Amino acid sequence: MGSMDSEIVLDLFPWLKVYKDGTIERTAGVEVVPPGLDPQTHVLSKDVVIAPEPHVSARIYRPNFVTKGPKLPLVVYFHGGAFCVASPAFPNYHTSLDKLVAEADVIVLSVGYRIAPEYPLPTAYLDSWTALQWVASHKEEYVNNETWIKDFVDLDRVYLVGDSAGANIAHHLALRIKDSDPGLNLKVLGIGMIHPYFWGTNRIGSEFADGIRKELVDKWWLYVCPSDKGCDDPLINPFVDGSPDLAGLGCDRVLVIVAEKDILKDRGRFYYDKLVKSEWKGKVEIMENEGEDHVFHIFNPESDKAKSLINRLAAFLNQGMAVNVE
Q1: CA atoms of 211 and 265, how far apart (whole Å)
Q2: What whole-number distance in Å separates Cα of residue 288 and Cα of residue 326?
């Protein structure tokens, strides 16, 4: 950093600070851990390059003792962080996905999409779509050959899962799958949305009583998405004029998870209600984490409620399979 008297022009608490000279100081989400074998869960992970230019990477996870048959579902995971912090290597995400793989017996691909402000939106969505195309390419014999996908994944059982901003990404990709031309050669069975990051200019629900956090979330979004539509850009508000119809979601099932103390909870509930009333033909479920705040399971993974969240998500991923889910 420069001198101590450098003027802060924008404080995106708790994520980053922007100084007058353009310097960005990231104050959270910058820690990283390497992939490898987790001795607690017996989950193995490694980093892979999805696209060299522009650079898109991912961290892939599998049970250490997986066999070559029957093949496992694939979860394509999108981390949170308001589109401007964190990565698949962030320790809290790494730990959370180790636990999910162990609980659900799935393969997970955690996407390293590029983040703002260096890469403003819609970069995160484009990178995440690139990751889905890369996964789908494994259906072709000689296009890509990531052995963990070729050997262990059933590409007719793919799920899109994310928390916060990552849940937002999962929603938009599920819409794009339906509309993609030529069609993406991938069967997405469902999307799991943990504390989804949707927003809007006009307040709803608890947003009326929490003006401080309302302004904070407004500020986050306006920073990462340079749009003249502000907090009513269809990327963040899926119910404004010009937003795609929810009937176009390219999956059969949706799980929405909200947290009681989360400023975003009423948007998640609203999404659930809208989906129930839409012409979408699938099945949607909702779960509420009582007494908890936004992405609490990422920061307190050993709590009983975090374990309950992971169990519910694992059950969602294993529906229709001949396995026991506690």
Answers
A1: 15
A2: 18
Residues 2-19 pLDDT 10s: 454 579 988 888 888 989
Sheet with 43-51, side-by-side order of all strands:
37-38, 43-51, 56-63, 107-112, 72-78, 153-163, 188-194, 253-259, 283-289
pLDDT, tens digit (0-9, with 9 covering 90-100), for 60-92: 999 998 877 789 999 999 999 999 999 999 999
- SS3 call for 24: strand
Question: And the tokens for 41?
Answer: 């869960």
Question: Could you list the active site residues?
Answer: 164, 262, 294
Report the distance separating Cα 233 and Cα 149, nearest Å.
Answer: 35
Assess whether the previous peptide bond of 182 is cis (omega < 30° from 0). yes
**CA angle at residue 26 from 24 to 27, to 5 degrees?**
135
**Rounded to an integer, what distance in angstroms lies between the CA atom of residue 114 and that of residue 119?**
6
* 178 Cβ contact list (under 8 Å, min separation 6): 248, 249, 250
Count Cβ atoms within 10 A of the Cβ of residue 185 and give its class: 0-12 exposed, 13-18 middle, 19 or more buried: middle
Are 280 and 216 in contact by the 8 Å Cβ rule? The answer is no
